[in-house]
Design a protein that fits this description.
alpha+beta; three-stranded antiparallel beta sheet; single chain; 18 helices; 51% helix; globular; four-stranded mixed beta sheet
Length: 451
């Protein structure tokens, strides 16, 4: 495609492997060589993709509602999320479903989920070993998955919930778009088993469980009194009075799982890693929690952690028309994405951008297109407010009731895991003390610091 910005000349397989193994190094190298806009080519994608990091260009990209989805994203996710997923629909169909689903994630409605989050977090924290090293990231994944099963899916049958606990994380691990494409190409070249077969088998099992849950929920005489998101979506109506079918509800449930499980867990693991490496910030957050009158520093901490460690690196669009702004000219049909981490590292937006400084957000909120961990525009993450809400609750419990210590001298390096930027070693910590209200130390264990 002509008229695109310059980019690395290495073959697509080399660019893809570099992106998978060292994503930050890849992006920083490209920006040094080519500037704020550059073109990359990945294996499995039909078109090259233009990366942006200038807020003005991102504003132009996200403000145009007619810009669609890159084909690579749709092809990779549709087999799992389904044709009716709000994440993949375009135009009026997307807007109608977004409008139908959005009320469940905002305002007073979210307050009804607070007790669930607290109960799930408390049960998980009580299981942590005292005085032993363990990775925090999987523990956060357990919390966010259970919150989705209870607050979003509303599954009360413990047997079905256990089956979903086992299968859903495996499904997400299998469906990494670029990695899956590479595995398919290798299987074809060397005549090995098609990796999509296992994915389809897992998907069939999950569909059976979810469709059974949806069918039972429709018949629940207490449906109108239930507050989980599935029940709210079953009762919701479009403007013409129709409602979502069972299959469409299934698509939205898996979409909410993809958008809210791994991402929120990873954001929590990053935030704890940053706090443990910055004792002054941690102490200030503890004081605010103890005083209990406001949560300004908590909110600033979450905002800063999402800036410094954005979980999702890309949130692209396909241009419906030409994009022309400040010397950047891209033709209609181009796949374009903000490089979120590069945008968050801009010195013209953030003083000392690599520093963890929640104070920067106490007096001033981030610029709309200079802080984009949830994407932007009409496709901004539907559950963004819920994710931040859940993070604040879990962080409050961890900071107030646990004494966690980091393992190792340096903070976690970034590793690309599926579609996320994750802590390479899982955020290794040691639990020194756990408040007795959550779970008393075992006999022979001391609440005093362990050497």
């Amino acid at each position: 495609m002509s008229g695109l910005p310059p980019g690395p000349s290495e073959p697509p397989i080399v660019q893809t492997l570099w992106w998978l193994a060292r994503p930050v190094s890849f992006m920083e190298s490209c920006r040094r060589r080519y500037g704020d806009a550059f073109t990359v080519r990945f294996v499995g994608f039909e078109r090259p993709t233009v990366f942006l990091s200038d807020p003005a260009a991102i504003r132009a990209l996200y403000s145009e509602q007619s810009n669609g989805l890159p084909r690579g994203r749709t092809v990779a996710l549709r087999p799992v999320l389904g044709a009716d997923s709000v994440l993949l629909l375009e135009g009026p169909e997307h807007i109608a479903r977004r409008r139908l689903m959005l009320p469940a994630f905002h305002g007073e409605r979210m307050r009804s989920y607070e007790q669930i989050v607290e109960e799930v977090a408390r049960a998980e924290i009580e299981s942590w070993p005292i005085g032993e090293t363990f990775p925090l990231h999987p523990r956060m994944q357990a919390i966010t998955l259970e919150v989705i099963l209870r607050a979003v899916f509303g599954v009360v049958d413990e047997h079905r919930r256990e089956q979903l606990r086992e299968r859903l994380p495996l499904l997400l691990d299998q469906n990494s778009s670029i990695l899956l494409q590479l595995r398919v190409l290798l299987s074809q070249r060397f005549r090995g088993p098609d990796p999509r077969a296992r994915l389809n088998s897992m998907l069939a099992e999950i569909d059976e469980l979810l469709l059974a849950e949806i069918a039972e929920r429709r018949e629940d005489p207490e449906l109108e009194r239930r507050e989980d998101i599935l029940s709210l979506l079953i009762g919701a109506r479009f403007e013409d009075g129709t409602q979502m079918s069972d299959r469409e509800l299934r698509d939205q449930l898996l979409t909410l799982l993809l958008a809210g499980h791994e991402t929120t867990a990873t954001a929590l693991a990053w935030t704890i890693d940053l706090l443990l490496r910055h004792p002054r910030a941690l102490e200030r957050l503890k004081r605010e929690i103890e005083e209990g009158e406001q949560d300004d520093y908590m909110r600033a901490t979450v905002t800063e952690a999402l800036r410094l460690r954005p979980v999702v690196p890309l949130a692209g669009r396909k241009l419906a028309g030409d994009l022309d702004i400040e010397g950047l000219r891209l033709p209609a049909g181009t796949d374009v994405t903000p490089a979120i981490w590069l945008t968050h590292m801009r010195e013209d937006l953030y003083r000392q951008p690599r520093a963890f400084a929640p104070e920067r957000f106490l007096e001033e909120q981030p610029a709309t297109y200079g802080w984009i961990p949830f994407g932007g525009g009409i496709r901004r993450c539907l559950g963004a407010a819920f994710a931040e809400f859940e993070m604040r609750i879990v962080l409050r419990m961890l900071v107030a009731d646990c004494d966690l210590r980091p393992v190792g001298r340096r903070g976690e390096p970034i590793k690309r895991r599926n579609v996320t930027f994750s802590p390479r070693h899982g955020t290794q910590v040691r639990l020194i003390f756990r408040d007795r209200a959550l779970g008393a130390p075992q006999v022979g264990q001391s609440p005093q610091p362990v050497a």
